[in-house]
Amino acid sequence: MISGIGIDVVEIMRFKKSVNDYGNRFLEKVFTKTELQYAQSKKEFVQHLAARFAAKEAVAKAISTGWSSGFRWKDVEVTNDSSGKPAIILTGKMKELLTGQKVLISISHSESVVIAFVIIESMN
How many CA atoms lie within 13 A of 76 on its CB side? Predict the structure, then answer.
């Protein structure tokens, strides 16, 4: 049974401005080391980070409690399997909050925007 949905759209140029304006302070607050390493290995570094940012925002929207639940950026990590399919790994409060639930994600992008769509499915 679906217990939550969330969607987020990020304009890549606007996100790039945030990266340029706030630098490592911003990146280290929002992204795990694994996410940063993954994005740095790609030609379009900012586009890949923007996708992960959109995914985290979509999860925050899908949990239906917003930031009041103690959402922390690094408690939601976006990974990819060997075929490139994205997946969400939860830690900390998000893992506790979503125990017994599965988080499904889809990410897409064009040259100018990234979109992430999340479904939270109750396994009970």
Answer: 27
How far is residue 98 from each of residues 60, 78, 93, measured CA to CA in Å?
12, 16, 8
Beta strands in 25-75 (DSSP E): none
Question: How far, CA to CA in Å, does 42 sit from each of 26, 48, 63, 111?
Answer: 19, 8, 30, 15
**Which pair of tokens denotes residue 53?**
């940012």
Tokens 């075929």 -> residue: 83
Please report the pLDDT score of residue 124 as a whole number: 72
The CA distance from 41 to 59, in Å, is 24
Q: Which residues does residue 109 pair with via DSSP β-bridges, in sequence order?
A: 114
Q: Mind listing the pLDDT tens digit for each residue in 60-85?
A: 999 976 666 678 999 999 999 989 89
Does the pLDDT value for residue 10 go beyond 90? yes
Looking at the domain covering 2-122, what would its CATH class be? alpha beta
